[in-house]
What we know:
Layout: E1 5-7, H1 8-15, H2 19-35, E2 44-46, H3 47-54
Antiparallel strand pairs: 1-2
Helix pairs in contact: 1-2
Amino acid sequence: MSKQYLSAAEVGEIMNYSISHSYAIIKQLNAELKAKGYIIRSGQIPRKYFMERVGLEDEQSGVGA
Length: 65
């Protein structure tokens, strides 16, 4: 089973961002999810939502753009 949430380090690795910039991206995406009524996890982002928003294919699940 693939990980359902990405950490800031994983976001940074995927996007070639620093950890601090990754946290800012996660915060922005989590705010979007919270506005839609979802329960969020601070400092982490659902893998599926992240991949969808950045327009990348998720190799682990085969889901994506």
